[in-house]
Amino acid sequence: MASDQVRPHFSSFHAQAERELLQLILQSEASYPWNPADPGAEAYFAELEQEVAASWSSAELAAQGQALSSQLEQLWATVLPTATIQETAAQSLSADLFGQFAAQVPKSLLDKIVGRANQIIATNLSLADQLVQCVQELLPEWGEDDLQVLARPFAYAMRGAETEMLEAALRSVRCAAWTELSGIEQARLSLAIARYAIAQLPHSSIPE
Asked: What is the pTM of this model?
């Protein structure tokens, strides 16, 4: 008998739930403007922004926005192939160097130095050997042993001082076109650019 008394109540509750669900589906106004082009969408979003502004301070919104941006960057880094990251960094570095040395070093030579640096930064070569590999093709008249001698000061210099070394190399050469520089000036400038490129490219591991 108790079971018979419960069934009508359950049936009534079920019917009421169905009516409320039907009313929700058929209601004239949507609870959320799925089409941003609708006339009422602008007012809805304006009201939503006011609610957010009232609930969050500017500092809290800035902190949350920065945290979200950081998370998105981390996710993007996991999706973007490493090769693409390397290639993008190399292109950016080439443009940066060209802006500094356009008057002295042809862009094709800068691109070769950066491209070679991008290829060898993951090798087990010593930093001096990496520098020589970056510039050897550009300086065919120089022997490898001679380039090694010139590369040592750049290889053994304090890490983090690449910009200073680059500026020092610029001061040590004449402000002239590449073809007018002496062989020693070309070599010093090329090695300084290679040292800077290796330091600036991502995921570079510089062996001692």
From this structure: 0.53
